[in-house]
């Protein structure tokens, strides 16, 4: 069911006289007199979300209204996560229009109230453009905006918080309380514990202090309790300790020791899987830990010299340690259990815009927000693929002008939100209102790079990423300076003006020094250069409205809301994805960016079709027909046959970092075979390349890994198998051969592949499909003739024992060897080998349309029909689909070759898979280290330093 919303009231502009001050808003996507809702087709859908483990319904709301181009996953997640009101009540939101209006109209009202717009006309342009961008998935605010804005509850708009704790029991107890309140609201917090005296120092009473590691236990227990109290996501928190703290070694080893405890308990028979009954006895599992190193320590590491650990109260050195030995312990711990991460203190504070107010000591849980203690950050992310212009012939460009305009719009909205936002503590509210920290970022970088033919780990990929990041941050600060002229600079600016302008100059200099690579990034760099020139000029005149503008967040749930293929700055997870269908069920499809990338690289339509078909079957591009080996790297992913190297991830972070106010939420993935030395190198190179923070994850380093129900059943079965046998009788199944009758229908086909001629005879059961195949090539007695005879017998016997034809087709199509090339068959224009041709021909002759279409095999008529109508299927009165398998020998007039590539092949998703991560596990035979979603039970996937559930949108992070 579809409908459109219309009415002159929505499109009419409100008249009003201009004021002397206020922003001039520019139309980007919208038309005067037409509301964005009136330009899309709306439809009603039913949202029913189940827990796959037991089939129970987690969420149900029927008849929700969304644009027809929104995916099933995006609709499900927005409906279940962001619609407000009790389900089933009249107050429950049921349309995306209601959700967007609730947020956008609140922003417009606040903008008008606080003097952001020069007239009601400008406010209306702001409303329409913001509505359009959200409606068309061009960008999204972070989750708290969708949860809270426009509702009766406190309008918290920030997802990221930094707390502080001093060396007093009162402050430590305040930390527990404040952190708990933030967790209760579904957000995350981080803090630095380095002000707390170490266990090696004395109290005023004469006894030894407990030390920060001791107090971490209480906070960890609190976070675990709040999580287990019914939340659908674990508490997200970050704990930081300075490298010169006397308890730093104990801090480094906290999680390593707990992993040893998990091993011991597991071996003793306790259930220590993630989510298991006994895992709660393990401590320190609810936080990300990071050690904050400074340049003094890193230089001591380089030189192999001693480094002093300092008393918290006096600052004197109370112990000296070998810097290399301590750094090795840090790397060993990260190798063993992925914690702690590392933060580079001097680099962070070198880019600090407000140092006169205080140093940056900590970050949020995902490490992208770094600013003053007791502050928060409001996030929003842009969908980069929405700005890629592609004419379909391989000619592409990044729309830098439109991108900059959208950035200006989003930054304006984000700053307005601080004017009406609520905060979990008064201290956080005061600091945020005084410094107005924002965190604009982006998603879909990995998909954009692949679509433009750039390898993620390449100079071209890094050049484009750096240019876009520079343009985003430069435009953000330019708009911040323009806002300062209208509504004033942030309260803390006067005290920090020199430092803020110094940091702007650092960004501008980094932009000027960046290397221009190709025709895609060079125009973006030019636009960024112009933006930074305006930043320096306008900042000198007006100051700035915001102490911080940009970060690269994980974009977990909101990335799914925008239908992004990749999150944040991450590469693609895999080339084959899991896609939910409107009518129920699911399909596995090759990423839509793959054909786009192949066109950019100069491949012809038929080559693209063959490569996509290969990826659909194998999940990677290795040995794909016609694909040049030098282009393999373009399709490298985070996991799989050609996983991106650890330093590939680090170099990408380094390309973006100089152009960000904050940092980057990202985990550097290492294979299970990685060594401690490799971890050490990654952490060292992160410092050398100017990163602010870094975390690694080595596959299968965690002991308490999640087990699916299937694996648990297998484990139980194995245990049972080891017990004394009590089965009296074992019945063994053996297949039975079904021979063909003496008289059998058959089809004989002559063919030519790459100049080699041959004949194929395919005989069928009278009523039950193909039963045997005979191939004739070359002279009798030759090696080739003998091999073809043996191959024919093997295939025929397999069919008679029940092996389905589609199994042979899926295994032998796309097999490549000589002779190969053009054929004389109009239905199969190109073949990678004789075997490839034979099984494509057999599929066309004997498999029903639905089966072979799922394998990407179509006849010439079906291809032409797709070009004409957009569908491979004929109308019911045109063809007898059931009769295709029993068709007589063909005679089809030759046609001209196809001129466009076919869409990515789609096949039914395996029944065991419930999202892309599980699909990847099945395809590659690996175990993706990730927790199971607490809400729907599917395996989550990494999104930056956190985890994201593709099924229901739950995250383990703070955005």
UniProtKB/TrEMBL annotation:
Give the protein's cofactors.
Answer: adenosylcob(III)alamin
Entry's Gene Ontology molecular function annotations: cobalamin binding; cobalt ion binding; nucleotide binding; ribonucleoside-diphosphate reductase activity, thioredoxin disulfide as acceptor
Q: Its biological function?
A: Catalyzes the reduction of ribonucleotides to deoxyribonucleotides. May function to provide a pool of deoxyribonucleotide precursors for DNA repair during oxygen limitation and/or for immediate growth after restoration of oxygen.
Which residue ranges are recorded for the region named Disordered? 1-29, 888-914
Its protein name is Vitamin B12-dependent ribonucleotide reductase
InterPro entries, alphabetized: RdRp_reductase_class-2, RNR_2_N, RNR_lg_C, RNR_NrdJ/NrdZ, TSCPD_dom
Q: Which GO terms describe its biological process?
A: DNA biosynthetic process
Q: What is the lineage of its organism?
A: Bacteria, Bacillati, Actinomycetota, Actinomycetes, Kitasatosporales
Ranges where the Ribonucleotide reductase large subunit C-terminal domain occurs: 158-697
């Amino acid at each position: 069911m579809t409908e459109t919303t219309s009415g002159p009231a929505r499109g009419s502009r409100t008249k009003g006289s201009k004021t002397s001050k206020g922003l001039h808003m520019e139309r980007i996507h919208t038309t005067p007199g037409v509301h964005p809702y009136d330009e899309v087709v709306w439809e009603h859908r039913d949202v029913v979300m189940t827990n796959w483990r037991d089939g129970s319904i987690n969420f149900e709301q029927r008849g929700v209204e969304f644009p027809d181009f929104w995916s099933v996953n995006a609709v499900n997640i927005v409906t279940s996560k962001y619609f407000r009101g009790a389900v089933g009540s009249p107050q429950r939101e049921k349309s995306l229009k209601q959700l967007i209006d609730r947020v956008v109209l609140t922003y417009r009202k606040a903008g008008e109230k606080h003097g952001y717009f020069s007239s009601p006309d400008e406010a209306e342009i702001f409303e329409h453009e913001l509505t359009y961008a959200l409606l068309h998935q061009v960008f999204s605010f972070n989750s708290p905006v969708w949860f809270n804005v426009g509702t009766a509850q406190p309008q918290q708009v920030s997802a990221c918080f930094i707390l502080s704790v001093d060396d007093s029991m009162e402050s430590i107890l305040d930390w527990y309380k404040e952190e708990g309140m933030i967790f209760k609201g579904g957000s995350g917090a981080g803090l630095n514990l380095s002000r707390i005296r170490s266990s090696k120092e004395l109290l005023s009473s004469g006894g030894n202090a407990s030390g920060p590691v001791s107090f971490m236990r209480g906070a960890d227990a609190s976070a675990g309790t709040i999580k287990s109290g019914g939340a659908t996501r674990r508490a997200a928190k970050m704990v930081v300790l300075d490298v010169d703290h006397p308890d730093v070694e104990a801090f480094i080893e906290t999680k390593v020791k707990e992993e040893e405890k998990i091993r011991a308990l597991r071996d003793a028979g306790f259930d220590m899987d993630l989510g298991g009954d006994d895992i709660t006895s393990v401590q320190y599992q609810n936080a990300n830990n990071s050690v904050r190193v400074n340049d003094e320590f890193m230089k001591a590491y380089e030189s192999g010299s001693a480094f002093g650990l300092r008393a918290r109260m006096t600052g004197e050195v109370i112990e000296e340690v070998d810097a290399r030995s301590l750094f090795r312990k840090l790397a060993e711990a990260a190798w063993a259990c992925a914690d702690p991460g590392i933060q580079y203190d001097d680099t962070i504070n070198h880019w600090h815009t407000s140092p006169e107010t205080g140093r940056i000591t900590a970050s949020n849980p995902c490490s992208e927000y770094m600013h003053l203690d007791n502050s928060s950050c409001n996030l929003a992310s842009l969908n980069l693929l929405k700005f890629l212009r592609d004419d379909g012939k391989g000619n592409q460009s990044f729309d830098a002008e439109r991108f900059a305009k959208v950035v200006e719009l989003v930054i304006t909205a984000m700053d307005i939100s601080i004017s009406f936002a609520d905060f979990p503590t008064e201290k956080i509210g005061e600091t945020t209102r005084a410094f107005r920290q924002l965190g604009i970022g982006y998603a879909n970088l990995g998909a954009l790079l692949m679509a433009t033919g750039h390898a993620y780990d390449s100079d071209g990929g890094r050049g484009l990423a750096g240019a876009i990041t520079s343009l985003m941050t430069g435009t953000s600060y330019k708009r911040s300076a323009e806002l300062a002229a209208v509504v004033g600079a942030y309260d803390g600016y006067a005290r920090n003006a020199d430092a803020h302008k110094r940091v702007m100059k650092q960004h501008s200099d980094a932009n000027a020094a960046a290397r221009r690579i190709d025709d895609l990034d060079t125009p973006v760099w030019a636009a960024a250069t112009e933006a930074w020139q305006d930043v320096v000029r306008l900042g000198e005149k007006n100051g700035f409205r915001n102490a911080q503008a940009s970060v690269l967040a994980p974009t977990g749930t909101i990335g799914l809301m925008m239908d992004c293929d990749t999150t944040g700055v991450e590469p693609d997870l895999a080339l084959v994805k899991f896609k939910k269908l409107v009518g129920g069920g699911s399909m596995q499809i090759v990423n839509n960016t793959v054909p786009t990338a192949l066109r950019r690289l100069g491949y012809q339509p038929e080559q693209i079709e063959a490569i996509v078909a290969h990826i659909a079957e194998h999940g990677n591009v290795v040995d794909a027909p016609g694909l040049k080996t030098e282009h393999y790297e373009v399709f490298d992913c985070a996991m799989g046959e050609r996983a991106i190297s650890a330093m590939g991830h680090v170099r990408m972070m380094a390309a973006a970092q100089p152009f960000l106010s904050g940092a980057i939420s990202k985990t550097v993935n290492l294979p299970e075979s990685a060594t401690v030395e490799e971890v050490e190198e990654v952490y060292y190179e992160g410092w050398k390349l100017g990163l602010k923070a870094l975390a690694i994850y080595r596959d299968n380093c965690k002991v308490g890994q999640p087990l699916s129900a299937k694996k648990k059943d297998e484990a139980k079965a194995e245990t049972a198998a080891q017990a004394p046998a009590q089965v009296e009788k074992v019945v063994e199944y053996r297949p039975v051969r079904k021979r063909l009758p003496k008289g059998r229908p058959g089809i004989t086909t002559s063919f030519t592949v790459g100049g080699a001629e041959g004949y194929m005879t395919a005989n069928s059961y009278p009523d039950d499909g193909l039963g045997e195949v005979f191939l004739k090539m070359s002279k009798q007695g030759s090696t080739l003739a003998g091999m073809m005879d043996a191959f024919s017998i093997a295939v025929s016997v397999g069919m008679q024992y029940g092996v389905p034809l589609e199994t042979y087709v899926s295994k032998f199509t796309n097999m490549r060897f000589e002779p190969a090339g053009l054929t004389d068959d109009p239905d199969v224009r190109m073949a990678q080998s004789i075997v490839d041709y034979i099984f494509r021909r057999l599929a066309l002759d004997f498999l029903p349309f639905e089966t072979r279409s799922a394998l990407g095999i179509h006849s010439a008529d079906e291809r032409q029909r797709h070009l004409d109508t957009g569908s491979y299927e004929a109308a019911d009165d045109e063809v007898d689909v059931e009769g295709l398998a029993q068709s007589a020998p063909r005679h089809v007039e030759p046609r001209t070759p196809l001129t466009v590539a076919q869409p990515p092949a789609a096949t039914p998703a395996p029944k065991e898979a419930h999202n892309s991560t599980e699909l990847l596990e099945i395809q590659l035979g690996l175990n993706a280290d990730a927790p199971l979603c607490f809400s729907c039970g599917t395996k989550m996937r990494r999104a930056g330093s956190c985890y994201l559930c593709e099924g229901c949108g739950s995250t383990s992070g703070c955005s």
